[in-house]
Design a protein that fits this description.
- There is one protein chain.
- With 534 residues, the chain is α+β, with helices and mostly antiparallel strands.
- Helices cover 68% and strands 7% of the residues.
- The chain has 15 helices and seven strands.
- The chain has helices at 2-13, 17-84, 90-110, 115-141, 149-153, 155-218, 222-235, 249-303, 305-322, 328-356, 369-379, 381-387, 403-419, 478-488, 515-519; strands spanning 365-368, 390-393, 398-401, 428-436, 439-445, 493-495, 504-510.
- A five-stranded mixed sheet has the order 2-4-5-7-6. A two-stranded antiparallel ribbon has the order 1-3.
- A hairpin with a 2-residue loop joins β4 (428-436) and β5.
- α3 packs antiparallel against α4 (115-141), α11 (369-379) packs across α13 (403-419) and α13 (403-419) runs antiparallel to α14 (478-488).
Length: 534
């Protein structure tokens, strides 16, 4: 026997890795095929038993209980009608007859393939028919208004007949319970077999994978080992280390291609390092710019505001105390000083509000733009009443946004539409809203003085005014702030060049701000009654 083993071992030792892999894969596929067929059969059995349990056994048992309830309703109604003669007692009886027919038909449909269950159902039907023929129908046919003498005469017989019906129902339900329990046990056993079969398939796949990797490991040659060592050296950071071609021509060609990739990688890394240095410099510039902006906001809100308030207070005091006592030119100079201080105060506040947009944190929330618009119209009620403006709007959606910024957006757009009206016309303003893909497009349309197309971009630049301060008040920040708010929420804003009878500002907003906006900071609460400017 040992003599036969030595030639067999010698024969196996001559097998190549490819042959071992072929035999191993063939054996594994054969086993997998057998396990697959077994698994398919187990799955089919599981599905069949599960379907029988869910669609036949359980519904049949519950329908049997409903049938019992319908028969009990009949018995209760007949007993009450026979004892009192009141017609209302026949209502549950007649409903029970209807339900009995329905549930009997359902049971017949569910149990049509089971002779024993059908026999139980026939026994229940026979007992029910016997009770109905002798007791229920004769009593139900008795005249209403007085107790039925037949109910008293056949009381004992009726009890015996209904007890027989209860017994038939109990037998039926007991059989259905037993069959459902057996089906559940069969399903559990089949599922256990299914789990075992698929575990065996997984084990065979794992073994096949191990055999393949072991074969590949054993098939690595010396040139490939050298190539791997060179690649590891380069991967360790020595990118200037050359790869020396070795072995057959195809391996030498492969080594040359990898070395070409190494040289290209060296060039790419040099370019990437240079780009990183430029990016670091730009980041430092941006951080410095943000720091300067923070310093400006602090100065504007503290250092500049305090002396400006003193200048404004004392010039107003000077106006009240000495107004009319000096000559007209002195009064004019005082007016200039008061107006200049007030305008500077407004300009600083507007500029501070503009700098806060997208910089100071506020959590986003679901905002009803219709409610925000109503509050905005309330804050603009004085100017709206003075001009007699008519403002209408389409139904506005709810978006995830910053409510303070939305209020500032409506405040500036509607305030501009009211402010820049034609003197000879009553302002008419309409706000429209319509979905546009993943965005909402809004438009604020008025019949005012309009905006020339050549200024369609200029009006959104900070401090850019199309009119003098004597003609229209404002600082020239309003539309620039609107542009910043809209872009912060992932939208765009522009002047509609095709609208000529007045001005139309259109802008888009996302239902939810982009990820970059959601991750950034939001502005702190600003004055809701800031003067809108164009």
């Amino acid at each position: 026997m040992s003599g036969n083993a030595r030639p067999r071992a010698r024969r196996f030792s001559t097998w190549t890795t490819r042959r071992w892999l072929r035999v191993g894969v063939a054996v594994s596929l054969t086993v997998l095929a057998l396990l697959g067929v077994t698994g398919a059969w187990v799955l089919a059995q599981t599905e069949s038993i599960s379907e029988d349990l869910v669609e036949v056994r359980s519904p049949a048992l519950s329908t049997s209980f409903r049938l019992e309830s319908a028969l009990l309703n009949q018995e209760t109604g007949i007993r009450g009608y026979g004892a009192t003669g009141i017609p209302e007692f026949l209502v549950p009886y007649r409903q029970g007859l209807t339900d009995q027919a329905t549930h009997t038909a359902r049971l017949t449909e569910l149990l049509h393939d089971d002779a024993a269950d059908l026999k139980d159902l026939e026994a229940v039907q026979g007992a029910a028919e016997a009770w109905q023929a002798r007791i229920a129908r004769p009593i139900a046919a008795a005249p209403a208004g007085t107790p039925s003498s037949l109910a008293t005469e056949r009381a004992a017989e009726g009890k015996e007949a209904f007890d027989a019906l209860r017994s038939a129902l109990s037998g039926q339900q007991e059989r259905l319970r037993t069959e459902r329990a057996h089906a559940a046990e069969d399903l559990s056993s089949t599922m256990a077999l299914r789990n075992w079969v698929f575990s065996a398939i997984a084990a065979v796949i794992l073994a096949l994978t191990i055999l393949i990797f072991e074969g590949l490991r054993r098939g690595i040659t010396a040139p490939l080992a050298q190539l791997g060592a060179d690649a590891r050296t380069i991967a360790g950071g020595a990118f200037d280390h050359p790869i020396t071609p070795a072995g057959p021509a195809d391996l030498r060609r492969l080594s040359g291609e990898i070395d070409f990739m190494r040289r290209r990688l060296v060039r790419e890394l040099a370019f990437t390092e240079e780009a990183r240095l430029r990016l670091d410099a730009q980041t430092a510039d941006l951080q410095r710019s943000n720091a300067e902006l923070e310093q400006f906001a602090y100065v504007a809100s503290h250092d500049l505001q305090e002396p400006l308030r003193k200048v404004s207070s004392f010039t107003q005091l000077l106006q009240r105390r000495y107004g009319g006592r000096l000559d007209d030119r002195a009064d004019q100079y005082i007016d200039y000083a008061v107006d200049g201080a007030n305008r500077m105060q407004t300009l600083i506040n507007d500029l501070l509000d503009f700098s806060r947009v997208g910089r100071v944190h506020h959590e986003l929330q679901s905002v009803d733009l219709g409610s925000v618009l109503e509050r905005t119209l309330s804050s603009l009620s004085v100017s709206i009443e003075e001009t007699g403006a008519s403002i209408t709007h389409d139904p506005l959606p709810s978006l995830v946004a910053d409510p303070t910024q939305m209020g500032m957006l409506w405040q500036n757009l509607i305030g501009n539409a009211v402010k820049f009206h034609r003197p000879e016309r009553t302002p008419e303003i309409h706000i429209s809203a319509a979905p546009e893909g993943a965005l909402w497009r809004f438009a604020v349309t008025d019949n005012g003085i309009g905006i020339d197309p050549e200024y369609a971009e200029k009006v959104f630049v900070i401090f850019q005014r199309l009119h003098t301060k004597e003609a229209y008040k404002g600082s020239g920040i309003g539309l620039a702030m609107c542009k910043k708010i809209v872009e912060f929420h992932g939208g765009t804003i522009r002047v509609d060049p095709d609208h000529h009878d007045g001005a139309r500002i259109t802008f888009t907003l996302a239902a939810e701000p982009p990820q970059t906006a959601a991750a950034s900071t939001l502005p702190e609460a600003t004055r809701a009654d800031a003067e809108p400017t164009r």
